[in-house]
Design brief:
The chain has 247 residues and is of the alpha/beta class. The protein has 7 helices and 13 strands. Helices cover 34% and strands 26% of the residues. Helix 5 links the parallel strand 11 and strand 12.
Length: 247
């Protein structure tokens, strides 16, 4: 069954109003009409099973048949702090991180980041593109929410955000103790929020790791192999998903 997202205010009593680009997709691409069924998610973890009542050029009105809490969300909210990579690697990271269950993604400027987003308009355009990728990935993976892609922040600000979470981890190639990493990953279900800080192509500088330790962000190892930035985040998210998935 086709799946779409709406803002909470578009849900009124037992009716849902679909507007925007989804109208054209439903009407002219999928060629759906009155009587057809679809799933509409309010973006806050609730799925509404609906039947189309009316199709207009600018709006599609649907009646709610039943409602269910989406069962695809992890029990712990994961925020991915991703050091900005080159070219279109961020798009891949966002797509796969959303599929793996991340709650929020925040691009981070670390010391070795090569990409510079000095133009505010350029940054806003990228954020729009990244958010669209997150929405598409959420639809494909039947997420109950659309993870938010937040504006780029500094490394210091990222650690400040991490300090507000129940636990924060920073994969680092010089960290030791895979047994300790396994223990930490296995314990994550007792936390409500987890931060994961991933470095850029050049990795972290020693001073950045020292600062992370001062802010109670825990270094972990992902094994003996050196992973690319677009692999490291997805690797640790996959480990977390196995630990945090509901029975």
């Amino acid at each position: 069954m086709h799946r779409f997202y709406v803002a909470p205010e578009q849900v009124q009593d037992n009716k849902i109003s679909i507007i925007g680009s989804d109208v054209n997709h439903i009407k002219n691409v999928l060629r759906m009409s009155s009587g057809d069924k679809l799933i509409i998610c309010n973006g806050q973890g609730k799925d509404c099973y609906c039947i189309i009542d009316r199709v207009d050029d600018k709006e599609i009105s649907c009646n709610i048949i039943s409602e269910l809490i989406t069962d695809t969300e992890l029990i712990t909210k994961i925020t991915l702090f991703q050091g900005l990579p080159k070219k279109d690697k961020m798009e891949l990271i966002i797509q796969k991180a959303v599929e793996l269950g991340v709650h929020e993604i925040i691009p981070v400027m670390t010391k070795r980041v090569i990409v510079k987003l000095e133009d505010k308009k350029r940054e806003e355009k990228k954020l729009e593109r990244w958010q669209a990728i997150a929405e598409s990935a959420a639809k494909q993976s039947h997420r109950g929410i659309i993870p938010k892609i937040r504006p780029v922040i500094s490394y210091d600000k990222a650690l400040e955000e991490c300090s507000k979470m129940d636990i924060a981890l920073i994969p680092y190639e010089n960290a030791e103790g895979i047994t300790r990493t396994r223990e930490i990953i296995a314990s994550l279900s007792k936390y409500s929020s987890v931060g994961v800080v991933i470095g850029p192509e050049g990795g972290f500088e020693e001073t950045e790791i020292e600062l992370a330790l001062e802010r109670n962000t825990i270094p972990i190892t992902l094994g003996r192999r050196i992973l690319r930035t677009e692999t490291a985040g997805l690797a640790v998210l996959s480990m977390m998903m196995l630990s945090l998935e509901k029975e």
